């Protein structure tokens, strides 16, 4: 396995839509078999599979893989701990987005109420 490096030392993610597993392995500093294993362990990783069951990762997948790598290699989380941390972060993002939607709807409804009172 490659030695743990800080994510700051990893190469920049190119502006492509899809990445092959070999490209992602290089971008994230892990081997392809590790990526295939992480797909089984982390429900957030779902690369698109095309002809011949070839995996194609999107930019968001690469970002998630880098997060997983940092949790496991740099911060010392176990697989289960990293999975729980990522799921917890997803839940917080969902709540935050919901709160933003509610605030926006409230502002719009208050605007409609002002218009109706005229």
Q: Can you offer a commentary on this structure?
A:
- With 118 residues, the chain is mainly alpha-helical.
- It has one domain: Multidrug-efflux Transporter Regulator, Chain: A, Domain 2.
- Helix content is 62%, strand content 8%.
- It is built from 4 helices and 3 strands, in the order βααββαα.
- The chain has helices at 21-28, 32-41, 59-74, 79-117, and strands at 19-20, 48-50, 54-57.
- It has a 3-stranded antiparallel sheet.
- Mean pLDDT is 85; it is low at 1-5.
Secondary-structure map:
Blueprint: E1 19-20, H1 21-28, H2 32-41, E2 48-50, E3 54-57, H3 59-74, H4 79-117
Antiparallel strand pairs: 1-3, 2-3
CATH class: Mainly Alpha
CATH topology: Multidrug-efflux Transporter Regulator, Chain: A, Domain 2
Number of helices: 4
- Tertiary shape: elongated
CATH architecture heading: Orthogonal Bundle
How much helical structure, as a percent, in the residues? 55-70%
**Ends apart, CA distance between termini:** 69 Å
Structural class: mainly alpha
Overall pLDDT confidence: 85
The succession of helices and strands, N to C, reads EHHEEHH
Please report the total strand number as a whole number: 3
Radius of gyration: 20 Å
Low-confidence stretches: 1-5
Give, in spatial order, the strands making up the sheet with the most strands: 1-3-2
Domains (count): 1
What is the oligomer described by this structure?
A: single chain
User: Strand count, sense and closure of the main sheet?
Assistant: 3 strands, antiparallel
Fraction of residues in β-strands: 5-15%
């Amino acid at each position: 396995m490659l030695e743990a490096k800080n994510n700051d030392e990893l190469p920049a993610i190119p502006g492509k839509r899809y990445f092959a597993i070999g490209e992602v392995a290089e971008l994230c500093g892990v081997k392809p078999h590790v990526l295939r294993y992480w797909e089984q362990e982390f429900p957030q990783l779902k690369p698109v599979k095309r002809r011949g069951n070839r995996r194609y990762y999107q930019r968001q997948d690469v970002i998630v893989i880098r997060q997983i790598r940092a949790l496991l290699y740099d911060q010392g989380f176990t697989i289960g701990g990293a999975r729980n941390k990522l799921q917890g972060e997803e839940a917080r993002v969902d709540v935050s987005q919901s709160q933003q939607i509610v605030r926006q709807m409230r502002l719009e409804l208050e605007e409609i109420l002002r218009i109706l009172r005229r």
